[in-house]
Each structure stands twice: as structure tokens, then as C-alpha cells.
Amino acid sequence: MRYYFLNQDMEEFSIDVELQKNGVFEFSHEGEKKQLFTRTLAGKNFYSFDGISWKKLASLGVNETLISNSQTFKVYRGFKPSGLNKGGAGALITQMPGKVVKIFKKVGDSVAKGETVLILEAMKMENEIKSGADGVIKSVNITEGQALEAGFLMIEIEE
Amino acid sequence: MLSNDQRREQLARLSAEAELGGGEARINKHHEQGKYTARERINKLVDPDSFIEFDKFVTHRCNSFGMEKTKYLGDGVVTGIAKINGQQVALFSQDFTCWGGALGAAFANKICKIMDFALENKIPVIGINDSGGARIQEGVDALAGYAEIFYRNVQASGVIPQISLIMGPCAGGAVYSPAMTDFIFMVDKTSYMFVTGPDVIKTVTHEEVTKDALGGANTHNEKSGVAHFNCSDEDDCFERVRELFAFIPASNMVKHTEKLTTDSVKRANNKLKDFVPDNSKKPYDMHELILEVIDDQHFLEVHAGFAKNIITGFASIGGVKVGIVANQPNFLAGCLDIDSSVKGARFVRFCDAFNIPIITFVDVPGFLPGTVQEYGGIIRHGAKLLYAYSEATVPLITLITRKAYGGAYDVMASKHIRADINLAYPTAEIAVMGADGAVNIVFRNELKGLEGEAFDKKKAELVENYENNFANPYRAAEQGFLDEIIFPEVTRQRLYQYLKALENKSVTRPVRKHGNIPL
Amino acid sequence: MKNKRVLIINRGEIAIRVAKALNELGLVSVGVWTDNETEPPHLEFCQEWVHLKGSSNQETYLNIPQIMKIIDDYKIDGVHPGYGFLSEDREFSQALAEKGIVFIGPNPEAVYKMGAKDISKQIAKEAGVPVVPGSTGEVDTVEEAIRIGNEIGYPVLLKAVAGGGGKGMRPCYSEADVKANFEAVRREAQSSFNYPGLLVEKYVLNPHHIEVQILADKKGNVFHVYERECSVQRRHQKIIEEAPSPFIGSDEAVRKDICETAVKLARAVNYDSAGTVEFIMGEDKKFYFLEMNTRIQVEHPITEEITGVDLVANMIKAAFGEPLDFKSQDEIKIQGHSIELRICAEDPISMLPAPGMVAGFETTFPTGIRFDHCIYPKFTITPDFDPMIGKLISKGLTREVALRKVKAALDGLVIDGLKTNIPLHKVILEEETFVKGNYSTSYIGTIKPQEKVAVQENAEAFMVKIAAIEMNQLGGNK
């Protein structure tokens, strides 16, 4: 079972856990394994890393967040929430037929993620096509005023 | 006579043999293709140690074509019950190492048994498909087996959630079971679905196409819309299934549990203050609005690759689990067309069946024009979405962010088709059509005879006039077609308040066997 | 005094503390609840509950008319204001005095006199209490400033008269500095506080914040209950307090001097309740009066721990004209050492308040620990609440023992779901300067223990969390 922790800046890290026999948890994190021993008495759970000194495992209310010093993490058991910040690719392809209104970059220009590279008029809307990554313009295959069909590779960005 | 110890040893031995399925060699070959075995998949999907297997020692009873010589314990499918994040589920996992996962009578029987169990006990069914199709040797018995499964898919439809994971081939008649389930997950590169394969296609229509291109994950997620989720690998697939279970209920009879969150319902959506652009022609990404409003930015988008002009997915607001349907203005201008109508309709009906309130975000300029759409039947497909919303009795909350023109205004959960709450932003424009087109028709006489600059000037004047009068939500508000025009900053708070108010909504419709939704 | 009805016009841990003392003395404790805290924990300890209508502080705890009405409606005999809110509000204590309601605090005159900085300083001077040397009033010219600087000795502080909270002041280490900074401070004072007036004061380097607990009755008896050191503070918010002062240590002469000086001041204003006289003490152990707080203070428990004197019970007795629990000053002795850590719902690094909801709460303490708090699972701290949610107090035979015990207690204190300053306390309790016991009010600013707090714990903390969730799940499964 993999646990994902996402902090307030959406940075994530994950830990894999396996429950072995006798309440021993084996964790794998960044290639390293660590064991945690647990035992239960009178409805209370206890843990120990060395099997010698034991502490009470706090009974928890809301399981979904973990506050660690200055960071707040959301805890996800068994999945990482999908749909967080979809990054585009380095290839800008038309999703629908349209006309190139304005091109802002030329080959060799550097571009930042999220920066508008060109404006495409389609379906009576002016679409700002943005770069999905930081990089350098590798190729520009369009000219202003050109009418394009869907699936046309307009601009390539090298990351 | 065997002693007690010997009998115990016998059980352990047979159990181990069953778990090997088609044998080590085949298991290795399976692994080499980047696929997990049937049992490994179950163990990775469900909560650790929660799987209880049924029918481990079932074997086939076919005596034709020398089948009696080979028997596998379990007959090539692993079935049983398990837990996913504490929720009890029933599942079956087809074992490709046994005759390529081909289905025979006993195999189908096992699946039917687990489906019956699930239906009687109101728990979801998860099917992991990895099968070459029917066992030709078993003849009609195999076809009968499929049909028994199909029948049960339909009996269970709308009562318990049915999830299909396609993790290998799924061809011919076998595809119809997943097709009738609620959600299909496909794994990129290692799974494919089609009714007739490339070989047959080549001989009949002389088209050359690869398995992947014909029915792979990308094809079904983007072209045909058959699959709802496109997973990069099997592990990713299991994660997405677990994520789905964070939102869907166990059956249509249980009350929803709260999705735990610490995201305050009083959080203001200041980001949305200027979110809708002043320029009506400027598109925006509706995803951003959704993420801003929901809990923890956790949005599970369903059918993401298909009909991108409409967004469907699950989220929660203040812990209340909801289904979200939204037009996407930056794709096809957010128009409704055949694919998006069908995508939206299926999602709305799933939510309605399982008592999940639906929140609809509207920014739609109309239906997509063109012969492709007309010949394709936009009339009957568009009607599906309208039908689905009208039929739904779950709480429906609609928010018009910008455009809501023409018939599309009616279709997107308008007040008239019995949405419970209809909201609009001040930037909403509710009209029969956009100013530009409207002016051309309504003021045809005023514009007749004018040309060039005079025409442009008069038209601009009329357009502005029209916009001032009609491109706003107040006409609709005057009639009570909108319950409230809200400032975008309070969107989240409002939605939560309404969701809570609609908690106990209960509506009955006239008794009938079922309606006749255009198909 | 028995069965008299006392209204506690406060909330949180101090309301609990006061209720406990009232119950102990056989009085009727009447607690309040407002519109946005319908299940506050302090009500558990109060015998009667009254609804204080409204949600903001203005509408409730600071709403004198509503409080006076409640006093009438519920036949209240006395009021305990706790700390903060109306505890040092002259208007309130006057209103109560006029109605003949017992105010569990000092007489209104004392509240007034000690409430204004210039008046209290004047009274201190007249009573022979050392005050921070400096100009008697505003200084108008740079020449005057230099004259005073030369007289009292550098370094001096040029301070805006209307300023406060550490703002509007500049240290000058020489005549040249005064010349350079005089006009600048005037300008700053005008722009920040709308008044250019400034005064010149001796700048005490690395001052220690030492305060003396006063306990007096209405019969003219004024006692001191020794001192506390509260030098670990940031922006005048105390973080850790100790009694007795580790800086004074075993220097009984200084101790006697500062405590008796405090009594002298209290007598000068006919003080008749519990209160605290605050001093700053320089490296040379010379001390100067800062201000007097005419109320019970947050950190009163450490004084109670080392002397056994129940300050709250005694101030209640005094207010009702009863004799205190002791008769003479020599009955009060220091035994052992006590440390208090203020547990606050704030970010341990930035020390900014971090409202939230308590998801879980566990305490596993050694002996010698007292935890005054108002925490319970699902307790929500909103932005208008005081972020201080508890005080962790240890008592030990010596300072080392008290330190040992409070460290162990901190280890056993688990508050889940909130950011707290517990990680900051853990760093401070290990930090060399603090452990040695010689730290001044510049501690937080110069040692900066908050920067030694790890931004997040190591992976082991996460493993523990996962184990807890899994065991919850497994428990649920079974």
C-alpha cells in the first residue's frame, strides 16, 4: 500500500507500507526500509522503532491531514489524487480548426511554462495557447493568418 | 485413509497449486509483458490481507476436444470479496495464464456467483478483464456463460456500481460486459478492446490497423469514448480505482459518507473575482474554476480524454460528495455536440442512479453546427443530455458563469427541467443567441441597404444595444428562472449551503416501466 | 462568602482555573457561552451557565451593558475578569463598584493609576522605586537630549512618547549617535504615531524581564510571592516563563531587594488584590520598574508551584474581605523550581497564529506536571481566539529537574490536527543558552531558535502516522 503526502505547495512524497505478521509494519522510503513494531492493549495502540522503548499511538480524529512542524500535508491512502496541474507537452498541437492570429515567439526564443506563445482564433473564440513547460522554441510551423485544421503541430518546444 | 495432518497438507498443496494458475512458465511470460498475474492484481488493488477467495477449486466439466486432459483449479478466474479502503467489494480477476484467460461455463459460473453475491449484499463489483475470449472447445456453453454475465450486468445496473479494469485483451462478445458497466479503466499499451480484431478486419474490409490503434487505451479514451480512464500502467490503474472509491457509494441504497476534509466551507474564492474574462471571446479553462471551488483541489475527472468540450468528474464540497458537469470554454468554445451530450448524459444518469448530487457549471454558446453533427444525429444525441437532466431526481445545482444561449441553455440543467437551484454570475449572458447573430436577424430591416463603414457602425450600435438588454442574467432573474445572482467569491460557500439544504430532497416520478430515452 | 455567586467573564483555560478556585471555596461559579462557542470546555467546571449573546468580542466579553444586565438578571454577587478583556478596564471596575458588586481584582484607583505609563512611572519615582533613568518628559531639542544622555550614561534610547510595542525607538551609543538620530526619530514618531514628541531613556542592554507577584488583601496587608523570569519572548509575547529567576539565581540580596521594592510600589497605590510588578534587569543586576499589571497573569501557575500559594483562591478571598491563607511574609518560601511553556496554535517557525481544529489529543506525562488547557478533540481555534491553548508547567527540586520533567512532558504531549509551537519548545529546551539559564529578552532575536526548527519532521513521523491510520483501518475491519 502506498501512502502519498501532499503539502500545501502540492509537493509530494510517498512511503510504501506492508503489514507483516505480529503487527510489524515495514516501510520503504527512497530505497530504504524501516520497521515499526506495534502492539495493542486495552483498546490502545503502541509503537516502537527498536522494540525497546514504546510510545502510545495517538488515536486520531481526521485522518486526512498530517501537520508536521511548519508543514501541512494531505494524506492519501493508496492513490495520488489525479488531475493536479496537468502540464502540457512541448508540442503545441491544434485541438480544433482555427486561424493563427498572432505569434509571439520565434525559433531560439526561450519560453517559460504558462507563457502565451500564440493566439489562435477558433469557434469565434480567441484562444491563448500557452507553453506547457520551460524551454526553448525548437520550431515554428505556422504563419500569422494561416488557417489550420485540427491536429496540426504548430510549435515545438525543447525542454 | 488419510490422517488429519495429511488432509491438512493436501489442502495446503492444492491451494498452492491453484494459486499457480497456468504454471510458473506462463506466469513469467506474463510478467515479461509488463503485466501482473490475476492474483497479484487483486493483492495490489485491495486493502492488504482483505481478500477472501471463493471457488478456488472449481474446474471445468468439458469433455470435448480433449479438454478433459487439462484442468486448472479455479478454471482461469479468481473470484472473491475484499475491501478497498474499508469498503467491502466483490471482484473477479481473469487469469491469462490459463488458456489465455478464455471463458468457459465453469469460469462464467464463478463470475455469475460473485455478481449474485454482490447484488444481494449491495456491494460494488470490480472485474479485471484479461481474456482471449470464449473457449471454442466449450462451444455454446461459453456463449451461454457470457450471456448469463451480461444479464446480471443489467440487473445490477444502477443498483451497485460496476467497475471494469481492462488489463489485457478483451475481444469479441466479451466486450459487452464491460460496456454495460459504469466505469471502464484501460491500461496503456497492454490492454485492448474490440469486437472484431485486425486480422478479420483485414480480410473483410482490407483495412490495416494494429491492435493498439484499433482498440487500445488511447483509442477508447479519446476516439470512441468507450473507456473512462486511461492509466499509464497497472499500478496507476489500481490507484485510480481506489481514488474512484473515495467518491462513489457502495450501492444505491446507502446514504453517502462524508469525504473527510479540513478545507473550510467558509473559504472565499477570491481567485474567481476576475476569473471570467471581460472579453466575451476570450476562453478560459473551466478546470481552474472547479479546482478553486471544491475541497482540497481534489477532482477526479472521468472520461477526460473524450469530448473535451464537456468536463465530468467527482469532487466534494464541504465533505459532501458531488458529481460535476461543466462546459469547457477553451475547447470547441464549450459547444455541445454529439460526443459531449452522450458523455454528459451517461455521467448524469450514473449520479442520479446512485444519489450523487450534481453541480453543473454552464458556459455554452450553443450546439456545434455542421453536417457532421447533423448527419451524425445531434438531434437524438443532444436530446440524451436533456432527457438525463429532466429525469434526474438528485439535487441539481446549476451555475451559469458566462454564456447560456439557445437550446443549450435549456439543456444544461435549467430551472425548467427541474434543477433545484439555478445561480448565475454577474457576467452571465442568457439569451437565445449571441448579440452578433441576433442583431443580424432581429434588426434585418435596420441594416438593409447599409454597406461598409455605415453598416459596421450601425451594427456595432445595435450589438451594444442588444448586449446591454439581453447579454446579462437579469431578464432570467426577473422571471425567477434564476434563484440567485452571486458574486463569484462566495461560490464555494453558497454551493455548500445549498447542498446542505437539499440533503433530504425526495421526489417521485409517475410510475412506469421505464421511459424511452432516445438512443 | 459561601454560596456567593461569581460570574467568570472570560473563557478558555483561565475560566477553568477560576472556576476550579471558586468551586473549591464553596462559591457558585457562573460561566458564560457565546453564539460562536456553544460547547466551551470551561462550562464543565462551572455550576451555572449563562448565554452571552453575540459572537465578536465587542458584542460579548467587552460588552459592559450586557454584562451588567446579566449581573442583575442572575443575581451575581461578584465578577472575576480573568486576564485580558475587561480585567484592567477602569470603566468596568467603576461600574461594579457603584453597584456594590465585588470585583475580584484591585480597587479602581489602583487600576487607573497603574494603567497609564506616565502616571505609574511618576508614582514609582515618588515611592522610591527605581525607574529607567531618563528625561522627565518630552525632550524638544537635540542639545537637551545630549545633556540627558551624558547625565545618565550611554547607551540611551530615543523613544517616541506615543509609541509602543517596541516601535519608534532608536538606540544611541554616543553623543554623535544622538545627534545623528534625533530628527529621524521625530519624523518616524510623527508618521507612525502622529505625534513627534520623544523622550530619552537609559538603554538597558540585554535586559532580563523579571516580574514580582504581589498578593494583597483589603485589610492593608501586602505580600510578595517572589519573582518570575519571562525573558523568552517575541514581540512582547511571552513564550517560556520560570520561577524563580535563573538570572537572579541564588543572589538572595537582589531577590529581597526587588521583591520588597515591588511591595513598596503596591503599597503606594493601596493595592488590594493579586497583581504583578514588571521590571527590566540589566546585566549588572540593577533593575528598573517597567509597569504593573493589575490582574492575575497567564504565568501565575509557576509561582503557585514553587510556593504552594493558591493565587487565584487567595485573590477571591481577598476580594470578599476574607483573610488570606497565610498571615506573614515569612510563611511564604521558595521550594524547588518551576518552568512553564505556553502551548500556542501557531507556526513553530514564523510564530504566526495558525487557526485550525484539534483532531486528536493525548497526554502522557511524568509526575510533577501540571497542564492548564482548554483542549479537546474537535476544538476549533478561529482567528479571533487567543492562539494560546494551554500551559505546560513542571515543578522540580532544582532547575535541572524541572527542565528534565518539562522535556519529558513535551514528548508526551500530542495535539493532532493543528500547527503548534511544540517543535519550537523542543529546540529551546535543548539549546545551550537556555539550558545554562542566562538568557535575556534578546534571546529569540539573537539565538533564533525558531530557525533551528526543521521545516518538517523526518520520515519516521510519517511512518507513525501511517501506522496509526492502518491500525484504525484494521480495527475497523475486524
Q: Can you tell me the CATH class of the largest domain in chain B?
A: Alpha Beta
Query: Number of folding domains of chain B?
Result: 3
**Largest interface between protein chains, with number of residues from each side:** A-C, 38 and 40 residues
Mean pLDDT of chain B: 93
- The general outline of chain B is elongated
- % residues in beta strands of chain B: 15-25%
Poorly predicted regions of chain B are none
CATH level-two architecture of the largest domain in chain B: Alpha-Beta Complex
CATH topology of the largest domain in chain B: 2-enoyl-CoA Hydratase, Chain A, domain 1
- Tally the structural domains of chain C: 3
Query: Going across the major beta sheet of chain C, what is the strand order?
Result: 13-12-9-10-11-14-19-17
Oligomer: heterotrimer
Residue windows where pLDDT falls under 50 for at least 5 positions of chain C: none
CATH class of the largest domain in chain C: Alpha Beta
Write the layout of secondary structure elements.
The complex is a heterotrimer of chains A (159), B (519) and C (478).
Chain A: E1 2-7, E2 12-19, E3 24-29, E4 32-41, E5 44-48, E6 55-56, E7 65-68, E8 71-77, E9 91-93, E10 98-103, E11 110-111, E12 116-122, E13 125-130, E14 135-140, E15 147-148, E16 153-158
Antiparallel strand pairs in A: 1-2, 1-8, 2-3, 3-4, 4-5, 5-6, 7-8, 9-16, 10-12, 10-15, 11-14, 12-13, 14-16
Chain B: H1 4-19, H2 24-32, H3 38-45, E1 52-54, E2 77-84, E3 87-94, H4 105-121, E4 125-129, H5 140-156, E5 162-166, E6 169-171, H6 176-180, E7 183-187, E8 192-194, H7 198-205, H8 211-215, H9 217-223, E9 229-231, H10 234-245, H11 286-293, E10 300-302, E11 310-317, E12 320-327, H12 338-353, E13 358-364, H13 371-376, H14 378-391, E14 396-405, H15 406-411, E15 421-424, E16 429-431, H16 435-442, H17 444-447, H18 452-470, H19 474-478, E17 484-485, H20 491-501
Parallel strand pairs in B: 3-4, 4-5, 5-7, 6-8, 7-9, 12-13, 13-14, 14-15, 14-16, 15-17
Antiparallel strand pairs in B: 1-2, 2-3, 10-11, 11-12
Chain C: E1 5-8, H1 12-24, E2 28-33, E3 48-51, H2 64-73, E4 78-80, H3 90-99, E5 102-103, H4 108-115, H5 117-126, H6 142-152, E6 156-160, E7 169-172, H7 175-193, E8 198-202, E9 208-216, E10 222-234, E11 237-243, H8 252-268, E12 274-281, E13 287-293, H9 300-307, H10 311-319, E14 337-344, E15 356-357, E16 360-363, E17 369-373, E18 380-381, E19 388-396, H11 399-411, E20 413-416, H12 422-430, H13 432-436, H14 443-446, H15 459-477
